[in-house]
What we know:
There is one protein chain. The protein has helices at residues 3-12, 17-26, 33-40, 55-68, 77-97, 102-105, 114-123, 125-144. The chain is an all-alpha fold. The chain starts with a helix and ends with a helix.
Amino acid sequence: MNKKEKAVKIFRDHFNCSQAVFSVFGTEHGLSENECLKIASGFGAGMGRQQLTCGVLTGAAMALGLVNGKGINDPEEKKTETYARVRKLFSSFEKKNGSANCRQLLRGLDMNDPDDHQKIMELGLFEDLCEKYVRDAVEITEELI
């Protein structure tokens, strides 16, 4: 199973989009799956279900930081390089999907509003759109790593 397939499986197993993306990279870099899921849990649905920056992007940005970021005793350039990779991540994702904002990506529907949430479910947007976003974020992150 490749990373995209694994991330979609994690998403389908009732974890959020950020958890799905971050965990497929974090487990390759010294973190347990459970640690990855916990670390990324607050970033799903646009950060705490606020529908701001899409969780696939926050999960991917964390993965880029884990792999390429600045740690103790690392040169400042590591931070600058990571920032550049995150900008490329956002640019590529927005080019493919039109936005980096969760609510915009879900056709303007508010998942905290019961009526809008019902529409999201009826339209199958989590399956049709969010799974695509998970795959796209994993693919872009693989290219950037």
